[in-house]
Specification:
The protein is α+β, with helices and mostly antiparallel strands. The protein is about 25% helix and about 25% strand. It has one domain: Nucleoside Triphosphate Pyrophosphohydrolase, CATH 3.90.79.
């Protein structure tokens, strides 16, 4: 979860969806990689933001899980997984909007914006809404003062 100076959260609109599906950057852990290293790598791969432009503020104390709806199981990710477990971090963006470049080598987003944290659950696909609500609840104090 990346916050700007106005305490708004970065979201990107998924390039592979026909509806308005916005999400925060996320991605898989490579073998032998630590979660924080993954978060910094994925953020750069998806947004172009280099690691030196983020400051780690907080960690979610547990991995969060979401399951795909039955109609998507077997269709996404080559049918290999039925959901994901995720480590989450709250970070402050130290750069400028001009440091964001979603035209990456393997783009995942076709647009991006900063939103109020309270807007997040309404922007994400329905099966991830509870996970986003848990993030907002866990990071509530930091979101209010960061």
């Amino acid at each position: 979860m990346l916050l700007n100076a106005d305490r708004k959260v970065w979201v990107g609109r998924r390039i592979d969806r026909t509806d308005e599906a916005w999400q925060m950057p996320q991605g898989g852990i490579d073998e032998g990689e630590e979660p924080w290293a993954t978060a910094r790598r994925e953020l750069q791969e998806e947004t172009g933001i280099p690691p030196h432009l983020i400051e780690r503020l907080a960690d979610h104390p547990e991995r969060l899980r979401y399951d795909l709806p039955e109609e998507l199981q077997g269709k996404l990710w080559g049918g290999r997984w039925q959901g994901q477990e995720q480590d989450w971090f709250l970070c402050r963006f130290l750069g400028h909007d001009s440091d964001v470049d979603i035209a990456t080598e393997h783009p995942e987003f076709d647009a991006w914006k900063w939103v109020e944290p309270s807007e997040l659950p309404d922007l994400i696909v329905p099966f991830k809404r509870d996970l986003y609500r848990r993030l907002i609840e866990q990071f509530r104090e930091q979101l209010a003062r960061s």
